[in-house]
Amino acid sequence: MKEQTRELGNFLANYFIEQGMDVDVAHFLNMLINIAIVGVLWYVMHYITKKLVLTSFQRFTNKTVTTFDDYLVKSNFPRYISNIFPLLLLILTVPVVFEDYPKLLSVFEKLVDIYIIFLTVFIGRSLVRTTTNYMKRHERYHDKPIESYAQILIIFFWSIGIIFMFSELTGKSVVGFLISLGAASAIILFIFKDTILGFIASIQVSVNDIVRIGDWITFSKYGADGFVTEINLATVRVQNWDNTYTTIPTYNLISDSFHNWRGMQESPGRRIKRSLNIKQNSIRFINDEDLARFQEFDLIASYIHEKQEEINAYNSKLGVDKKHLINGRHQTNLGVFRQYALSYLKAHPKIHKEMTMMVRHLPPTTQGIPIEIYCFSEDKRWEYYEAITADIFDHLIAAIPYFDLQLFESPSGDDILKALKPLQSK
């Protein structure tokens, strides 16, 4: 077979020599013509095989139920496979075309070998991307950093490919190249420092379950506040609430501190924790008239009655002088309001009844006494959570005057003008 191929390749050279042409010129012209013929054959074969393979794959994917083959098409796997047949043509013809020129033959054989390496890497990369995209569509892998592992495999393929290419170009064995590569390990570590750190970080993020795709995280250092949409080998992409994207180095997820709101998302409720600042000079003891008025409020009527009976019994036992309210025990308008707020939370249909619920004092400040509402909303969706919170505080702010309390508010320009108006009239 080889002899027949060699005779076919030298057919034109023998013909030119028979016609009286110089031997060297005849062989050189024969090589150029053979290159042109092989080039045309390669182009035609490449075009035909590409059409056939792509068409066959498309028909096959249309008939099958699985989507794996669809992702093969999207990752250009059929296109890379179609290059195998033209490559075989080059492997068979190059030794024949450059038989009389050993140096050129060596160069072109190296080029063909590099072509083989490139094609192998691209096919491997295509399979990795296909598998990655196929797995990402399944719910069980939805929150896993599959992209990081895919990038690691692609880097591995390229590393092996580059090693073989350098070995091919330099003529050294792969083992010898790896030994010489070890001598330059410090430089390699410096160049690929971020990649190595990202590789280690991505493993730790996955093994320790620090972040998943779909988690809501807040990373103040990078201005990130939103959902994780992608975890790669080197970076984590976060879509912020304003639909902008923030890219965070993967290594920083294990070296810096950030908030992951997954616990809230997985819990049965979302925390409401806000305060109302009450003016201190509006707080006072309540009298019998106030008690009668407060008992008309449905949410605290029973509380007022029971609490007052307890206080009356205590005061009677000690013989307290009721002339001054400071003597003995008495209810305050703030204490009654706190109970009202707690009763309102317990009656609210959107507040989780099995989780912590309280209305508490915080330390007094220059802005008054903070009364904190601490409870959990059953609906964790942002817009509904905000609506529930607003509904609670709308009601409590409107209810405060009924208890003869006042909210603290820094004076505005109008407040100052009203205070100065009596002085201006004089």
TrEMBL record:
Show the GO cellular component annotation of the record: plasma membrane
Spans through the membrane: 25-44, 80-98, 110-128, 149-167, 173-192
UniProt GO molecular function: mechanosensitive monoatomic ion channel activity
User: From its record, what is one biological process in GO terms?
Assistant: cellular response to osmotic stress
User: SUPFAM superfamilies this protein is in?
Assistant: Sm-like ribonucleoproteins
Keywords from the named record: Membrane, Transmembrane, Transmembrane helix
Q: Which Pfam families match?
A: MS_channel_2nd
| Residues covered by the Mechanosensitive ion channel MscS domain | 194-262
Major subcellular site: membrane
The protein depicted here goes by the name: Mechanosensitive ion channel
Source organism per entry reads: Salinimicrobium profundisediminis
